[in-house]
Amino acid sequence: MLNLETGLERSVRTVRKQNFFKQKDTVGWLVMLPTLILFAFFVWEPLLESIRLSMYTAKGVRLQEFVGFDNYIALFKHPDFLAAFKNTFTYILWSLLLGFPIPIIMAVLISETVHLKGFFRIGVYFPNMVPGMATVFIWRFFFTPGNTGVLNILLSKLGISNQIWLNDPKLTIPLIILTMTWKNAGSTALIYMAGISNISGDLYEAATIDGAGIWQRIRYIVLPSIFSLGKTLLILQVIAVFQVLYEPLVMTNGGPNNASISLMQLVYNYAFRDYKYPMGAALSVLICVVLVILSGIYTKLTKEKSKGGRGRDV
Amino acid sequence: MFEKYETKKEGVIRGYDVHSFYVKCLIIVILIICILMAAACLFPALWVFLASFKDIKEFKTNVTIFPSHFDFKVFLKTWNELKFLNYYLNSLILVAGSTVCAVIFNGLIAYGLGVLKPKGYKAVQGLVMWSLLIPATTSMVALFVNINRVGLNRSFVPLWLAYGANAFFVVLFKQFFESMPSDLFEAAKLDGCGVLHVFFLILLPLSKPIIMVVTIFAINASWSDFLLPYLVLNGSGKETVMITLFKFRNANTPFVDVLRAVFYSIIPPAILFMLFQKQITGGAVMGAIKE
Fold first, then answer.
1. Considering only CA atoms, which of A264, A216, A270, A215 is closest in space to residue A58?
2. Which of A59, A97, A240, B106 is most buried, judging by how many CB atoms fall within 10 Å of its CB?
3. Cβ–Cβ of A191/B288 closer than 8 Å?
4. Which region among A97-111, A148-162, A179-193, B238-252 has the lowest average model confidence (pLDDT)?
């Protein structure tokens, strides 16, 4: 067909192709425009608006007068801020101790199964489908102190006396992290499993010939191969923990005695309980700055990974 | 049971390891741990279902996991008492609009970024990627104030449109479009197809799998969505299931009614998951493999 193409046809095609490219720019932007407006309204403008809002006093949603950094200073002086700030680090610490290793262990174990593997994949992912609001209610029932709490019922079968769970200020945050881990570990484990299944069998065989046992193969082959993946997932996890809101709001209401109040919950209290929008905005800006820094680290990590020639092999 | 391990394709334990007694024990231990893990993941939701059969007295006095009798009428009774049909319908309106917006708007911008690439698209791409990392909750205060200013509070419209600006969905679409063979578009260009022709005649029919994934994720996300719907819709008579659930946190609603409400809120995602396990677990991994 192409061989029979006349000069005229060819030039018609060239013109059309040029048209396409001219069209491509204008139509390209036209196609993206509606979504860009939505992104501007729902994502980008609110970020800038937060900064502006945080420097004014307001009556309801109406701005009153410019006060500079007064809202920030008031924020720092408030005892709740210090509590929430400290708690955030405790949240992160416990998510490093529980939320980070558990999905890795799950992924390594499930990768070693042959029977029921599909069931395990689906089973561990299921909590991710349970709505966040439902999750915190379920776990509130589990952590109910006294003998109607589900965990206390289970423990009493083992002869252990009733625990007070969330009412113990030392246990509140670890238990909240446990709830979050229950919900999210399965989906993270699936990502690690995808990474593990990409490891070439030759590596294991070569290691076996060199005399490596099963634990050594995990230590020297599996863990290094998912290391870069782990770094990025860790940052994403820290970003998620920074915004923990439903759990303290519903399970403990920040208590006992501010032991579990989170930064996002403080934003919620300021803006949507006390209607002090500028204060809420000021705290949002602070959280956002931290998250931007963390995201910067994340982007740098993912770039390094692709430079290493590993590309999409996560 | 060990024969299947001989042909095992992935993981540390290889087919040739299986002959050792130690490895056989290890395999069994791993299998048991995995069963326990799956049980730990499934039990809480199952417990909600079982405990919902109890009445208040039984819930308080009879400290067991299993209810003494199964009577499905109690579910219907609470459903009617709490007027859950109403909340379900509101959630349905929210989900339908959000899903349509999620597919259309994110699909369109991804077509621009992944296929057309008009001059200067890189700037937009950078902004979208950043929005992926800056979570929506941090700009919630300002967004809520803005929605109030334009007078869209107490309406579904801002909630629907918010799903049209979802960086995660954009990435999913974009990855899919970029993985399509570029010959396809070249051929279409040579045949003088217009940009919109390419979109509707080539891209859209071939994009069914990714539209499916985004649809499922959008349905689940908007069903579970709480904060923005709560702020915008609370007190408007358009409360969704999640908003209703949240209001139970301090109210004097009997425990068993709260439990049943939790159960109602899990049913739709559970059904969705049963129907589309493959797409959902596949999509979860796909989203993580970025750029």
1. A270
2. B106
3. yes
4. A148-162
Taking contacts as CB-CB distances below 8 angstroms, the residues of chain A near B4 are 114-115
CB contact under 8 A, A50 and B139: yes
The domain segmentation of chain B, as residue ranges, is 3-51, 77-288
Which ipTM score applies to this complex?
0.89
- Write down the CATH number for the domain with range A70-313: 1.10.3720.10
The domain limits of chain A are 2-42, 70-313
Residue B73 to chain A, least CA–CA distance (Å)? 22
Q: What pLDDT digit, counting tens, does each position of B18-41 carry?
A: 888 888 899 999 999 999 999 999
Residue A299 has which token pair? 């982007």
The string of pLDDT tens digits covering residues A73-118 is 999 999 899 999 999 989 999 999 999 999 999 999 999 998 899 9
For chain B, say whether A201 makes contact (Cβ under 8 Å).
Answer: yes
Cβ contact B118–A28 (<8 Å)? yes
Residue-by-residue DSSP string for A132-175: HHHHHHHHHHHT-SSTTSHHHHHHHHTTPPP--GGGSHHHHHHH
CATH 1.20.82.10 fits B77-288, yes or no: no
- Sign for the CA dihedral angle at B136, B140, B145, B150 comes to positive
Show the beta-strand stretches assigned E in chain A: 56-59, 62-66
Residue B42 pLDDT more than 80? Answer: yes
Q: For chain B, state the CA radius of gyration.
A: 24
Q: Across the strands, what pairs with A62?
A: A59
Q: Does A246 touch chain B (CB under 8 A)?
A: yes
Residues of chain A found within 8 Å of residue B161, distances taken between Cβ atoms = 38, 41-42
* DSSP annotation string for B99-162: HHHHHHHHHHHHHIIIII--TTHHHHHHHHHHHHHS-GGGGHHHHHHHHHHTT-TTSSHHHHHH
Contact A49 B146 (CB under 8 A): yes
d(CA A285, CA B248): 31
Chain A residues with beta carbon closer than 8 angstroms to that of B280: 125, 129
Give me the residue from A125, A134, A294 closest to B245, CB to CB: A134
